[in-house]
Specification:
single chain; about 400 residues; alpha/beta
Length: about 400
């Protein structure tokens, strides 16, 4: 730890205080800071401030934090400012790209998992830096107990090349990715592992082993992928499904997609998830199949065929997540405007929606596959350290919920 650091971090805090909270008219009085690591060219920094106390003479003390794109702390400290007493408007010069995040839902997940024992997790073919480092970071955080399944020589070579501490992790030596997928699934069937994590191989290879009729871990329920998204402008976690597995799901598949998403929402702390079945419109149109599917899914929930949540649909995107839009359309619903879960009509719509939130709204996206005997973590090369941890944390929470009988296991 150092008391000297890059002025970029303190400048970002200053910009946030002067332009967002408290905003224009703020006068900086003092700043105490500790710097934890260097800011490097290409880093993406996030500043966070929280009011600590109101002081005499209209002064306010703020707790300040700056972290990098991996979620590692760059700076912590305390700032004192004189807050404006009247609303002001000013011409704003070009500033760093700033967005306001009112919450940190992933940190809540991390806190929940830290209180639990690590779950044995089979890591399939972790022979590149991203997949091996992601697995070992989850192990270092005490989320999982990793079992590395793949060519041992390649795994150790990657660890040595990139300075990754394997920490005594168990390695099961198999010759190639297909064999690794099959062996990892066998570990699940034996009860040796309770979570499956994809490494450096195609998703198809993992899912082929999972869904093998003779040796896989399929159940009577359709598997589906669920994004768990922390969107800066939305007040709670938002789950989106299916954006990665089921291309054009029929009604039966959509019922399973809904049930998987409800189960995961309950895992992350939503007692009675509000599920919005999305379409282009919020009224039933015989020529738009997704509106008919939405109506049928809602009735299936009424009859107990989908359990644990409250469904409404069809709903357009605006009135699913915005109360004012729902009010204008005169939609009287428990779900409209406050959805916890968004069910997309097909993979294309779900994938576009999720990526729009990530790249246009600065959302963070974790995600897992449910519907098999255990949760499956599908990592991506584009995932940050933080989102990889969030995916692992989500899977571990789900595995514990199943252990404790809080969720019904899908029938085999």
């Amino acid at each position: 730890m150092s008391t000297r650091g890059d002025p970029v971090a303190t400048g970002l805090v200053s910009s946030l205080l002067a332009n967002v909270l408290p905003g224009p008219g703020t006068v900086y009085r003092s700043q105490d800071a500790e710097f934890h690591r260097q800011v490097r060219l290409g880093d993406s920094l996030t500043a966070w401030v929280r009011v600590l106390e109101k002081l005499p003479e209209d002064r306010v003390a703020f707790e300040c934090r700056v972290s990098n794109q991996d979620g590692d702390l760059v700076m912590t400290g305390r700032a004192v400012v004189s807050a404006p007493t009247e609303k002001q408007r000013i011409e704003v010069a070009d500033l760093a790209d700033v967005s306001v995040r009112h919450h940190d839902s992933f940190s809540v997940l991390f806190d929940k998992v830290r209180a639990l024992e690590p779950i044995p997790t089979a890591i399939v073919h972790p022979v590149d830096q991203v997949s091996l480092q992601g697995a070992m970071e989850a192990a270092e955080a005490s989320f999982i107990t990793p079992i590395l399944v793949g060519p041992e020589q390649r795994i150790r070579a990657v660890a040595e090349e990139h300075g990754i501490d394997l920490g005594g992790a168990k390695i099961l030596d198999v010759e190639h990715s297909h064999a690794a997928a099959a062996r990892a699934v066998e570990l699940i069937r034996e009860g040796t592992a309770e979570v499956l994590m994809k490494g450096s191989l195609h998703t198809d290879e993992v899912l082929s082993a999972v869904l093998n009729k003779a040796t896989g871990i399929r159940t009577a329920r359709r598997i589906s992928h669920i994004f768990v998204m922390d969107v800066p402008s939305y007040p709670k976690l938002l789950l989106i499904s299916d954006a990665a597995v089921n291309i054009a799901p029929d009604l039966d598949a959509k019922a399973d997609i809904c049930q998987n998403a409800i189960d995961l929402a309950r895992t992350v702390g939503v007692e009675r998830p509000k599920v919005a079945i999305l379409s282009a419109v919020e009224t039933i149109r015989p020529k738009i199949q997704s509106t008919l599917d939405a109506a049928a899914l809602c009735k299936m929930a009424d009859r107990g065929q989908i359990q644990g949540g409250v469904l409404d649909g069809p709903l357009a995107m605006d009135n699913a997540i915005n109360l004012e839009a729902a009010r204008i359309k005169k939609i009287d619903s428990e779900v409209a405007g406050v959805a916890d879960v968004l069910i997309a009509p097909d993979l294309e719509a779900g994938n576009i929606l999720a990526k729009q939130l990530i790249f246009l709204a600065n959302a963070e996206a974790a995600g897992i596959v449910l519907g098999a005997r255990v949760p499956i973590i599908l990592t991506s090369r584009a995932d940050s350290v933080r989102t990889r941890r969030a995916s692992a944390a989500t899977a571990v929470l789900h595995a514990h919920a199943v252990r404790q009988g809080l969720l019904d296991k899908p029938a085999h």
